[in-house]
Write a structure and sequence with these properties.
Length: about 425
């Protein structure tokens, strides 16, 4: 018995030391930016952070359902080398670019990737990085491609691969892509990696705003982060809120509509730029600049990225929570579709409501520090006189449905008010104070 206790104690001591070492290394990773998403943080949207067609980086490398695409990555690397070898750039040169930064690469991942040896990690970075770069070059038609073999000519496959490029658990450090791009940029082209990347982002953004102009001076840590930064409003912080009391969440779109608050599609440089006009009692919401098919992917991954970074007041989180408050049922979705804030294709109303419900329930959020804090506060403040606005809204709706009945009702109200004033005046005359 004593011997068994000693063995258990020794084993646990070794485990404690190993765990502490791993935690200390993880906490000291200033470059850490590529996360595995905890189920508790992302809730029902965790699945959206994992690749479906192609693995990029170490987290999902070797998974059986992603193996079919590995051959395509090798073909893209072969195509790139067939072109660069004439300029003196060979596979050995690409390895020389990546290998010295092996430790920096490991620091970018929140989870331990010690199961990959140095040669295996370098090999993966070169293969995956060159695949991404070559596909971006073909997309922009910087280099020729074989139409019979190109992914660009298979809409379903390319769409799936493009989505996988923006999944949080499927990222490469951006400095790896930059180094490989510079090494293979022969002869030197006029387009930078940022140019190619932002051209790729156009595959997702369909609404107002020119993402191309935002590529200058942005410095992302990976493709998802760069896409995230491209969506940020030019004014990074909304009007500050000076009220001492905490800000509460807002009502659903249907509830707000019943008390006379309307909605309209608003022109803006980014779909994050929501404004409430308290004088006209209208919420201006830019049309969501992403197809419904891509919405759950993009928002889920950017919310998860902000949450894993500890930014509970992040812009995408604030936007998702604002929309999640508005959208609680399928009727709320239909109302916003009627106002053309949401497109009329892609997800059903029920799926749309379910997606934002998952985000709202599973995501920690600090509304007081968010860029939409003043919009939350203004909306809540406008509801202090909810009953008066509700009566007025009902009267307006009645006037629209039956003008003569509404006018009759208004006449009765005016008559009653006049009678009350007359009685009050007579009482003042006969019983003065």
């Amino acid at each position: 018995m004593e011997l068994m206790k000693k063995r258990i104690a020794l084993s646990m001591s070794v485990d404690i030391e190993a765990a502490l070492k791993w935690l200390n290394e993880s906490e000291s990773k200033s470059r850490c930016s590529i996360f595995k998403v905890p189920q508790a943080i992302a809730g029902g949207i965790a699945k959206a952070c994992r690749p479906c067609m192609v693995s990029i980086g170490p987290y999902h490398h070797g998974e059986s359902q992603l193996q079919m695409f590995q051959g395509h990555k090798w073909r893209y690397l072969y195509t790139m080398l067939a072109r660069t070898q004439h300029q003196g750039i060979r596979l050995e040169n690409l390895i020389d670019v990546v290998a010295p930064k092996e430790k920096m690469i490991r620091q970018c991942y929140s989870e331990s990737i010690d199961n990959f040896s140095v040669p295996d990690l370098v090999k993966m970075m070169v293969l995956d990085g060159c695949f991404i770069i070559e596909l971006l070059r073909q997309l922009r038609q910087v280099v020729p491609h074989n139409p019979s073999r190109a992914l660009l000519h298979n809409t379903y496959v390319f769409g799936s691969v493009a989505q996988d490029f923006l999944r949080l658990e499927n990222q490469l450090p951006y400095f790896v892509l930059e180094d490989l791009f510079q090494a293979t940029n022969v002869p030197e082209g006029t387009l930078s990696l940022a140019d190619l990347t932002f051209c790729f982002f156009r595959c997702f953004l369909k609404g107002p705003g020119n993402v191309w102009e935002r590529r200058i001076n942005l410095n992302g840590v990976h493709l998802l982060d760069l896409f995230h930064q491209s969506l940020m409003p030019s004014n990074q912080q909304d009007n500050p809120v000076h009220e001492s009391s905490s800000i509460h969440m807002i009502r659903s779109a249907s509830e707000l509509h019943r008390v006379g608050i309307g909605f309209k599609q608003r022109e803006a440089s980014t779909f994050l730029d929501i404004k409430f006009d308290r004088n006209r009692r209208i919420i201006g919401i830019p049309k969501i600049a992403v197809d419904d098919d891509d919405l759950n992917l993009i928002l889920a991954n950017m919310v998860a990225f902000e949450q894993c970074h500890g930014r509970v007041d992040g812009h995408i989180t604030a936007y998702a929570m604002f929309m999640g408050c508005l959208i609680r049922t399928a009727d709320d979705v239909q109302l916003l579709r009627d106002y053309k804030v949401i497109s009329n294709h892609g997800m059903s109303n029920e799926d749309f409501a379910r997606f934002f419900g998952d985000v709202r329930k599973a995501t920690p959020f600090n509304v007081d520090r968010s860029y939409l804090a003043s919009q939350f506060a203004l909306l809540n403040k406008s509801l202090r006189y909810e009953r008066a606005h509700l009566c007025w809204a009902q009267l307006l709706n009645a006037f629209k449905d039956n003008p003569w009945s509404a006018l009759s009702g208004l006449a009765i109200i005016v008559t009653l008010v006049g009678m009350i004033q007359t009685v009050y005046a007579m009482l003042q005359y006969y019983h003065p104070k």
